[in-house]
Amino acid sequence: MLQNPFKSYGIIAVYFFSSAVIIAMLIGIVIAVSYSGTSSEIASNTSFYQQRLLNELSKKMSTSLIGIEQTSGTSAKNVDLLYGRLRDKDAYERLQIETDLQSQLKYLVFGTPILQSIHVYSDYPFTSDTQGPVTFFPMSQLDKEAWYPSILETDSAWLGEHKIMSNGREESVISFARKVINNSNQYYSLMVFNIKVSSIRHLISTEDDTTNMALLDAAGRLITHAGNSSKLQQATLTLKGEMDKPSGSLRVQDDFFVWAKSPDSQWTLFEASSWSDMTKGSKSMAKLFLLLGATTIVLVLLLTLFLSRRFMRPMNQLIRAMGQYSPGDDQGLPTDYKNEFGKLFHGYRKLTQRIEDLYESLREQHVQQRAAELKSLQMMINPHFLYNTLDQINWTAIEAGQNKISSMLAQVASMFRLALSNTNSLVAVTEEVAHIDHYLKFQQVRWEDKMSYLIKVDENCKSCLMPKIFLQPFVENAFMHGFHGASEAEIGIDIYRKENDLYVTITDNGKGLSENWQNKPRKRGGYGLRNVKERLDALFGNQYSLQLSNREQGGVQVEIRFPLSDS
Questions:
Q1: Are 221 and 267 within 8 A, CB to CB?
Q2: Measured in Å, how far apart are the chain's first and last C-alpha atoms?
Q3: What is the distance between the alpha carbons of residues 112 and 193, in angstroms, rounded to a whole number?
């Protein structure tokens, strides 16, 4: 179970550490909110400006790449027209047509800056310079090209970055392949327009070559890139399925991606940035806040420690005075405090004065108690004298053959013994029942068989407490008033409990109560019932009830209820 620190530890420690924790939490929250807000703002601004940049780049690239696609379509139609004439003409005309076709394609390469070369795959045995911008290959060469499967199911497609031989060395290009189809819808030639990768990278890279940017086709395949190749390849897999919108951004751990699609959704440009590099300034600001916060915490804690010591000095003086208190000694508490501490010192001085007065009063009470104890010891002789006297009279009655008198004396002696042996105001139900039983047996000796009684006590209330000599006044009134002049007498006593109350019912078959019996003046008697009421008032206040009423079959019924008490 956790302990309450305000009850277990010193005030200085609680005040000091609680202040430190609260201040540290507040500064931490400020730093966290500032860092989070700054990072979000950086991400939002970066995403916004990068998307604008990518949109501009996408437009430029779209102009160039769409131009390549349109040019390829025109070239494919020209090739189809000239290709048909190659089959029907003589050798001279075929050579002239072949020369015209190569000239057109070369003119196209030289007229388009981003084009590196054009490769034409055909069954016609063209002759060409392998070092020139236009190269012819047989159709059988296609099976050796790694990119060929991507063009099998379509008429045209963009091919990802790959290597070709140019002027005796390998060069990286991206290509657009278009099939040449005749009027019979037969595919018989393939034109591949190779674009310089350096031209594309020049568009998507920065001067310091720190940009990680990639170009994807409509199927999400990587066409070319600028920057970290492995990182962009992994990013392509990560963003697959995320780039459905024309533009957007996504953060994955330390990578921040921004993308933008071309207006016709044929290409997607995306850029990968380092989140830690983007938020470097924000982290520096957070560190500055942290340093300022730590300095503030130290200064506040020093101030808190100083103030707590100043506040606790008078409290320590009071605690020390309380620990060293001895009646009659001067505590030496300061008297120049005018605030709450001054009230505490004044109250403590009044308290010690009151304690000293109580000590003096206790000394006087001790003297009086010693005198009362001696007097009590002397008075204890009287009950023993009474027991011995009754015992002597009883033996005299036995010797004289007065058995009734002997029996009555024995019951009276038992009654006195129970009444005088316990000085408590409340006794167990069993003890009170034993006392009234002796009294009823005493009366039964006098009445003989003309008198009967029945006492019923529930088992669950025998250990409960009730007022001492509580039943006798009611039973005694029955014999003195109810049975006066009667030929027989019956007494019933029932004691039981309900919930948290004890109930006592006393019935007799006597004359009953006269009208207005409570208001009639009495020349004698009546003290027993009044004594019972006063005792009940003193013991239970207004939590008891006492009712006397006449019974329909004759006699009186007494009903008493008071709170339950267990011994």
A1: no
A2: 35
A3: 11
Distances (CA, A) of 527 to 34, 135, 473, 522, 523: 88, 142, 9, 10, 11
pLDDT tens track for 215-242 = 777 667 777 777 777 777 777 777 776 7
3-state secondary structure of 200: helix
Q: Which two tokens stand for residue 539?
A: 């013991």
Residue 494 has pLDDT above 90, yes or no: yes
Mean pLDDT confidence for 183-198: 85
The 10s digit of each residue's pLDDT in 287-339 is 777 787 778 778 877 877 777 777 777 777 777 777 777 776 776 777 777 77
Residue 299 CA to residue 224 CA, distance in Å, equals 58
What is the CB-side half-sphere exposure of residue 560 using CA atoms within 13 A? 22
Strand runs (DSSP E) across 228-291, as ranges?
Answer: 247-252, 255-261, 267-274
Instruction: Give the separation between CA 128 and CA 122, rounded to whole angstroms.
Output: 12
CA 194 to chain CA mean position, Å: 65
Strand stretches in 148-237, DSSP E: 156-166, 169-181, 187-196, 212-217, 222-226
| Calpha distance 213→497 (Å, rounded) | 93
